[in-house]
Amino acid sequence: xxxxxxxxxxxxxxxxxxxxxxxxxxxxxxxxxxxxxxxxxxxxxxxxxxxxxxxxxxxxxxxxxxxxxxxxxxxxxxxxxxxxxxxxxxxxxxxxxxxxxxxxxxxxxxxxxxxxxxxxxxxxxxxxxxxxxxxxxxxxxxxxxxxxxxxxxxxxxxxxxxxxxxxxxxxxxxxxxxxxxxxxxxxxx
Amino acid sequence: xxxxxxxxxxxxxxxxxxxxxxxxxxxxxxxxxxxxxxxxxxxxxxxxxxxxxxxxxxxxxxxxxxxxxxxxxxxxxxxxxxxxxxxxxxxxxxxxxxxxxxxxxxxxxxxxxxxxxxxxxxxxxxxxxxxxxxxxxxxxxxxxxxxxxxxxxxxxxxxxxxxxxxxxxxxxxxxxxxxxxxxxxxxxxxxxxxxxxxxxxxxxxxxxxxxxxxxxxxxxxxxxxxxxxxxxxxxxxxxxxxxxxxxxxx
Lengths: 189, 250
Description:
The complex is a heterodimer of chains A (189) and B (250). In chain A, 24% of the residues lie in helices and 30% in strands. With 189 residues, chain A is α/β, with parallel strands linked by helices. In chain A, the strands form 3 sheets. Chain A has an 8-stranded mixed sheet. Chain A has a 3-stranded mixed sheet with strand order 5-6-10, with no helix packed on it.
C-alpha cells in the first residue's frame, strides 16, 4: 500500500487516482506502508509543522529502504533546510535549498528536463520532455541529480539515491508524461 | 526557460461556463468539467476558473466544481472568485486547485497576500487585477470590474509583488470580450516593472494577438471566447507561435 502524506495544502486527488493509495497523516498507516509519496504544495515551515507528528516515522521508513517519491516540496524537505524558512528538513541529503535570485523569481510553467542519469522513474519517458514546474526555491546540481532543468541557472529537476526519488516538477500536473512517471514509481519493486 | 503558456479561462455561474462581453451580457456556453477535459486534450497549458457570481453575491467559490475538475484533469488549474479568508483559500487548494487567485479581497486587505503566500507558498498565490484605462491612467477596478479604487495598476502590481504574490493575472476591462487583441501597452508596462510572471487577459481573438502579448513580455496569455467558440484550436495557435519563434509546448 502506498501512503500519500496528507500535508493539508496539496492537491492529491489525481495523484491518488494513479497510485491507488491512501492519503494519510496517521503514524500507524505510514509505518505499515510499502511506499511513501510526499506531495508538495505549501511553504517549507508550514508543511514541516504539519508533518511534525510523523516526521520521525517518515525518516525511519526512508532509512529502512522504503521507496520514497518526493514532489516539489517533497524534494526540498529531504535536505537540511531551505532559504524559505527556519525549520529543519529530513536531512537525508546535505545542503540547503536555495531561492531563485534572478529577475523572475518564480519558476512557473512547462519546462523540459535533461535526463542525466536514466533511473527507473524515467522508463518510457523521452529526454527533454515537458513537465510542469511551480516553485521559487531550488536544489543545486549535486551527485544525486538525475535530471537537470534551466531557469536562468541549471538546477536539479530530479534526484535519486537508492530508494529515494524526488522531482521538483509536478508529475500530477504534467499530462501523459507525469502519469507515466507516477506509474513508474508505483511499479517499482 | 519555461515555455510561454496558453491558458483557457472558464467563467462559471451555477455550474455552467459563461462568457460575457465587457463584463456584461453574459451567455451560457458549456459544462465546465467537460470543457476542461476538452482543453486538456487539445494541449492547453493551464486552466483558470473564475466564479463570477461569487464576489457580487458574497458566497464562496464552487468547491465541488474544483473537486470534480481536480480528479478529471492532469494539468494545472487556478480557481478564484469571492475568496475572502485564508481558510477559504486553503479549502480550495485542498479540494484540488493548484493555485488560487484573489482580487477584491487583496485590495480591501493587502496584508492577506503575504499571509496567503506564507501558508500556500508564493507560487500558489495569484493576484488578479482588473485594469481600466481612462484619463491617461490605468486604474485598478474591484468587485468584478464595477468599482474604480483609484489605485494605479502598476503601483498596485509592484505592491503585491513585494507582498509575496507568485503571479499577476492582468485583465484589461477595455479589451475584455472584444477579441480585438490584448492591451499590449499595459502588458509591457507591467512586465518591465514587476519580477513575477504576468498573465495577459482580455481581448484575444486571433493567433497574432497571442504573439503580440508574448512579444510585449507576457509569460502566459489567457483567453476564453477564442477557445469556447472554437474559433481557433490551441494547436493552431501554438503552431503559429512556434513558427514565429515563441517557445511553446507542443
